[in-house]
């Protein structure tokens, strides 16, 4: 477990460095998934339904199997538990993750939110929060939603 702890603390140090290098794809996916975990945990309850939603987002966005998505989420949960406060964490992600990666996560979130055909207020507010944390404008988020709706 110490190895994992060191690996994540090194990752967080790189991410929160004053001038972080752009993250490679695998690191970017881990950081973005950790942010989803942070948002899901922010209301004080983090239940099976929220874990399954994160798994679906990861599977959709990164073309992972169910077990691959669950493994990514488990790593993201560990990273999130060691990550700094949300403001610093998200600023680091914004600085280190390319805009197209961030917008793609918003698209995946919309895909999951719209999958059941019902737009719930809590999902809308979650999406607004994540978009804002990632520096995605309301307009770009709405356009991402429209792209997903057009696919259906």
TrEMBL record:
Q: Where is the Co-chaperone DjlA N-terminal domain?
A: 29-146
Task: Tell me what this protein is called.
Answer: Co-chaperone DjlA N-terminal domain-containing protein
Specify the species. Puniceibacterium antarcticum
Task: Report which superkingdom the organism of origin falls in.
Answer: Bacteria
Pfam families assigned: TerB (PF05099)
Classification via SUPFAM superfamilies? TerB-like (SSF158682)
CDD domains according to UniProt: terB_like_2 (cd07313)
């Amino acid at each position: 477990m110490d190895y994992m702890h060191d690996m994540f603390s090194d990752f967080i140090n790189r991410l929160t460095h004053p001038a972080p290098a752009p993250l490679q794809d695998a690191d970017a996916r881990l950081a973005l998934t950790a942010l989803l975990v942070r948002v899901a945990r922010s209301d004080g309850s983090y239940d099976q339904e929220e874990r399954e939603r994160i798994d679906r987002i990861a599977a959709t966005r990164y073309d992972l199997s169910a077990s691959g998505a669950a493994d990514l989420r488990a790593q993201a949960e560990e990273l999130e538990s060691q990550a700094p406060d949300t403001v610093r964490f998200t600023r680091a992600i914004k600085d280190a993750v390319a805009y197209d990666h961030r917008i793609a996560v918003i698209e995946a979130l919309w895909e999951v939110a719209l999958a059941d055909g019902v737009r719930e207020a809590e999902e809308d507010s979650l999406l607004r929060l994540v978009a804002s944390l990632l520096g995605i404008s309301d307009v770009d988020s709405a356009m991402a939603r429209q792209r997903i709706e057009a696919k259906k």
